[in-house]
Specification:
The complex is a heterodimer of chains A (225) and B (246).
Chain A (H helix, E strand, L loop, with lengths): L1 H8 L1 H26 L6 H13 L9 H31 L14 H4 L1 H20 L12 H9 L2 H28 L5 H30 L5
Helix pairs in contact in A: 2-4, 2-8, 2-9, 6-8, 7-9, 8-9
Chain B lengths: L2 E7 L8 E7 L8 H14 L22 E2 L2 E2 L21 E5 L8 E3 L2 E2 L2 H10 L19 H11 L6 H5 L6 H12 L8 H15 L8 H5 L7 H16 L1
Parallel strand pairs in B: 1-5
Antiparallel strand pairs in B: 1-2, 3-4, 3-5, 6-7
The chains are: A mainly alpha (225), B alpha+beta (246).
């Protein structure tokens, strides 16, 4: 732990932690998207899948145990990811207190430049998303265990669908830069890997965003009812 | 050609600066940016005004003394060149040009366009060297180094410590500089004994003065020696390896 504290104190260490937690969160987001595709198979499939997530691991472990383990892992990742980002942002602002009159960016992508605000948007969205479809606190007609009903009635409200679409576009940009830059943060110099990192980041950013945006669009257009 | 210059003027470290506007007239398109400033300065001196102060030495693009933000880009619009090697033909007659000093907390303005870049020296002092007894040079072929390794080490060693990477970086980070210095030693056999100690020490001093990397790759775009950000990845690898080893 002392070693980790020492490592985490350095900015390069924080970047490595952000990369590792980012990969874990990305892996989870990918599985979440794949699971959600069951929306297109109808209520029985989606609700069965939701039930499976709770029952996962039983009877070897109590029901919901595996689900809570993964939730705790994700929470730790989110906390570390945001903490590192915040500390580094403060450090960077302090390192460049005065800007230029007419700043030109010859190289930085829009995705790279919006990492910080994109991250804030995603974090706020995650809170809303949990209150909306996990706890149902802000859902007008939430039925526990009927995920399909909750998703479809939720997305029928146009502004809710818009919130999901905007947040997932922000997520796509965040992934586009994050999935590419994590290779540098982790010091992956292998030439064969490096050749594919841009394609890797682009593919997963596009696939995840397209699929996630398709859910509210499918409900709004009446394709999924 | 005629240009309108807006140049940052600042008397000293402790005073506030501001932009002053000058007309540069009758400038040859073959003049370098510094020669253009020389012409303006001669007129200022003739009028009894304080000339624009800027750092320069070799004017061949190899010493790393000169450097300024020109229209919001370090070393100006051309890429792969220091300010002294930027020629006025890359501008248009009648252009308005904004000239600012490097901006970073680590680089306080000393006067006008001159900044104090000594924190870069502190990074070097922390480990940017090889500890060997000096003496006559060893016969070159006693230590065979593969050509591709030589070339890569040389790509990193091209760094002239001008500070453009820090100036261009929105985080005021010196990653490209530090990575280049770490790599040109770390790639060669002579640099191996201190390789991991070096990266730990140099990164520690770097982080005391400068920001952290967000992979914007702005530094690479303005580096007069076109040093690749791949060296930053390499530095991260050595740093993480060093952390695991210790």
């Amino acid at each position: 732990m002392n070693w980790f504290g020492n490592f985490y104190r350095s900015a390069l260490g924080k970047k490595a932690v952000m990369a590792v937690t980012g990969v874990i969160l990305f892996g989870w987001i990918f599985l979440h998207m794949v699971g959600n595709l069951k929306l297109y198979l109808g209520p029985v499939h989606l609700n069965e899948y939701a039930h499976f997530l709770r029952a996962m691991g039983s009877p070897a472990v109590p029901e919901s145990f595996a689900l809570w383990v993964s939730r705790i892992v994700l929470l730790v990742c989110v906390v570390l990811h945001i903490h590192a980002a915040t500390v580094l942002t403060i450090m960077n602002r302090e390192a460049r207190p005065v800007g230029y009159r007419d700043r030109d960016y010859p190289s930085a992508t829009y995705a790279a430049r919006t990492m910080r605000w994109g991250g804030v948007i995603i974090a706020l969205f995650v809170v809303y998303h949990l209150l909306h479809l996990t706890t149902g606190t802000v859902h007008p007609s939430f039925i526990k265990d009927d995920v399909y009903h909750n998703v479809v009635t939720g997305f029928r409200v146009w502004w809710v669908a818009a919130v999901y679409i905007i947040a997932n576009l922000a997520l796509g940009l965040h992934l586009y830069h994050g999935l590419w830059s994590m290779f540098a943060s982790l010091g992956v110099t292998n030439a064969r890997v490096s050749k594919w990192k841009r394609a890797f980041a682009t593919t997963f950013a596009v696939v995840i965003t397209a699929a996630n945006v398709s859910f509210p669009l499918a409900v709004l257009s009446g394709l999924v009812r | 050609m005629n240009l309108t210059l807006h140049v940052w003027r600042q008397k000293s470290r402790d005073t506030n600066g501001s932009f002053a506007t000058y007309q540069a007239s009758g400038i040859s398109p073959d003049a370098s940016f510094l020669e253009m400033l020389d012409v303006v300065n001669e007129e200022l001196i003739a009028k009894g005004e304080e000339p624009i102060h800027f750092e320069h030495d070799c004017r061949e693009g190899i010493c790393g003394s000169c450097g300024m933000m020109i229209n919001g880009t370090a070393h100006g619009p051309m890429g792969g060149t220091a300010t002294c090697q930027l020629h006025m033909r890359h501008f248009n007659d009648g252009d308005e040009v904004w000239v600012e000093p490097w901006r970073a907390r680590a680089f306080p303005v000393i006067k006008d366009l001159i900044v104090d870049r000594s924190p870069l020296d502190k990074i070097i002092q922390a480990g940017g060297f090889i500890s060997v007894n000096t003496g006559s040079a060893v016969e070159a072929n006693t230590l065979p180094i593969p050509k591709p390794v030589q070339e890569r080490a040389m790509d990193a060693a091209e760094c002239i410590q001008c500070g453009a990477c820090v100036a261009q970086c929105p985080n005021g980070a010196a990653q490209l500089f530090t990575a280049a210095k770490i790599s040109h030693l770390g790639l060669l056999p002579q640099g191996q004994p201190e390789r991991y100690e070096r990266v730990l020490k140099m990164v520690e001093v770097m982080e005391e003065h400068f920001g952290s990397c967000t992979l914007f790759r702005e530094c690479e775009a303005v580096c007069p020696k076109e040093i690749s950000t791949e060296f930053i990845t390499r530095m991260n690898k050595d740093y993480l390896t060093a952390q695991v080893k210790r």
